[in-house]
Structure formats: C-alpha cells, structure tokens
# Entry
Amino acid sequence: MGMDLVLLGPPGSGKGTQAAILSEKYRIPAISTGDVLRAQVDAGTPLGKRVKAYLDRGELVPDSLVVDLIQHRLSDPDTQQGFILDGFPRTVPQAEALDGMLAALDRPLDAVLYLQVDPQAVRERLGQRHRGDDLQGVIDHRLEVFLQQTAPLISYYQAQGKLKLIDGAQPPEAVAASIDEVIRRLAGSANGSSRTPSRS
Ligand code: ADP
# Structure
C-alpha cells in the first residue's frame, strides 16, 4: 500500500527522527524541507544565499520557494510508493498548494501526524542541539513563528479528518510505537478502499 504522510509539530518535536524511522520501515523517502534548504545554503548557490538570511533569523522562507521545491521533489519516481513530509507544509497556503498538487495526482494524504510537545520541553531540546539556528533568541522566534503560522494547520487538517495526535514527549521509540499504532489502524480501515488501482 502506498502511504503519503505529513509530520507536523513544533521545532524540536522530533519530526526528523520519526521521519527517518518511518522512511526505513516503509521504504519510502523522508523529505525534509529544512534539509533541502540547508543543502542549498551549503552549496553556496544564489538561491542558498537568499535562503540563509531567512534561516538565520528563524523566519520561514517564502511559500512560493518551498512549494516549488516540494513540487519538484514529489515528481521524482522514488515517491511513487509514498513519502513522508517533514517540515512541509508550514503555512495554510503551503497546505493548500500541497492539496492541489496531490489532487492533480489523485493521491490524497493518508494522515497528518501531529507530534505534541509542550513549548518548554521543546526549548530545552533545541537548546541542546548545535545547529546554526538553535541560538536562544532564534529558537524563541521559531516557536513564535510556529504558533502564528503553522499551528493553524492543526484545525486545517482536523477539518479534513486527517489529523492524528501523537504524544511527542515520550522517548523516540515510544513515539515510533504510537505512530505505528495509528498507521495500523489506518491500514485496517482502508481495506480495499479509496486508493486508485494504479497505485496499489
Ligand atoms: P525545525 O523544525 O527544528 O525548525 P527544520 O529543519 O524543519 O527545523 O526548519 C528549519 C528552518 O527552515 C525553519 O526555521 C525555516 O526557516 C525553514 N523552513 C523549513 N521548512 C519550511 C517551510 N515549509 N516553509 C518555510 N520555511 C521552512
């Protein structure tokens, strides 16, 4: 069965960790917009230079830029059997763009896994990490940006009946087990279902 998943949650909620676990388990690519953007920065391309300014400030890069990146990435053949999006969508316009892309491919999202971790725990986790944008002031700003621009996606996907809440405060293996359970239930209820034959 193909599986198209989105991992949603505040910075430091463990999306990257869970994306890697899921990717290995289901043999589908994990696509991290953060990684894709940092790769552009490291490559020193003109685009990378523009992107760096946003990352350093803890601001989101413009929707059109990430939407293009994702659209391009989702046209790669390795996404045929499914994908895990980590860090996309992060705004309502991004979510709408994703819905549009997937509708055109006749492959709606299977689920949006929301990793719930309270802001204080997230702040502590990020404070221990050593990425360029993990400085305290930038962390606080990223959390604000999350609340303002990304948290609205919780009700967006709730309205679609796609949102699955996962307790992200548990240790990584326990989070993975909770996700497994959600996916098992999805597979159970999907029996013979809404999938088009071409993707079975
Ligand atoms: P974290 O979830 O810990 O913030 P990410 O690697 O997912 O880490 O994101 C790092 C930064 O990359 C964000 O603060 C933002 O500047 C940029 N970014 C990542 N994904 C997106 C996106 N979908 N839209 C806009 N900016 C993004």
